[in-house]
Amino acid sequence: MKFRPGNVSGSARPGRGLLAGAAFAAAATLLSGFFLAGAPAGAAQAQITVYAASSLTEVFPEIDGSPRYSFGGSNTLAAQIRQGAPAQVFASANMSIPRQLARQGLCSKPVVFTRNALVLIVPSANPAGIKSVYDLRKPGTKLVIAGEGVPVGSYTRRILGKMNLKSVLSNVVSNETNVREVLAKVALGEADAGFVYATDAKTVPGRLAILRLPARAQPNVAYGICIPTSAKGNADARAFIHGVLGKAGQAKLIAAGFLPRVEARVVVPVEKATPKHNKKPAKKRR
Known about the structure:
Elements: H1 32-37, E1 49-53, H2 59-63, E2 68-72, H3 74-82, E3 89-92, H4 96-103, E4 111-116, E5 118-123, E6 143-146, H5 151-162, E7 172-176, H6 179-187, E8 193-197, H7 198-201, E9 208-211, E10 221-226, H8 235-245, H9 247-255
Parallel strand pairs: 1-2, 1-3, 6-7, 6-8
Antiparallel strand pairs: 3-10, 4-10, 5-8, 5-9
């Protein structure tokens, strides 16, 4: 089945304004060597199409306002690329989806360009009285999460598994197609709670209460970017990714609440053991 113009539609629902996300995302990754190439200095940049995860809706246009963007669930965008959608860059909210495309010969080897974390959100009024993730076990709680194939939905289920809370899935009233739909339902009071990225929760100040999750339960939320095979050799696509990975692009991601693309490692100094001397002391001569 070939991609037909118009198949990529917005994820926002009528009347929800900024709360709902935007359409299907566009973004792409590329091989490490591509980043070094870049675009010729002073060259005019043609408009490219970037498919990107909906959690990047605000920050990507701040990094580069010239591309045509399509935001949505990473799994939905990948399906469009498989059908021949004209994307020059693909940015996913996980690494597994672009890696699958790479194994299928549909995009370049993805690289990590940023990271994120999950939080639990409740409406600011909090009618269900949810004060921690464990309160989701209350009967009748209306929990909304993303579908299992959506990165944030997969991350959500991992967290619940790590915390032995899979039983709360019985309180799920809706599985959404992307993180912005989860955000919108909770912010509008249509659900008692939902799991979203920390960066998404920041986009609707005053509408939500944010409950942090234990660090031990957090999955490795790494975002991957690649270049679809149909756009291989596209200098503008390489230039876009170069900008995302560059100092200015990374600074804007950090300012938006994203985490550094390379996780900091804490090096614990190890004291060298004092060598033991097993030799017996020499006998004194009489």
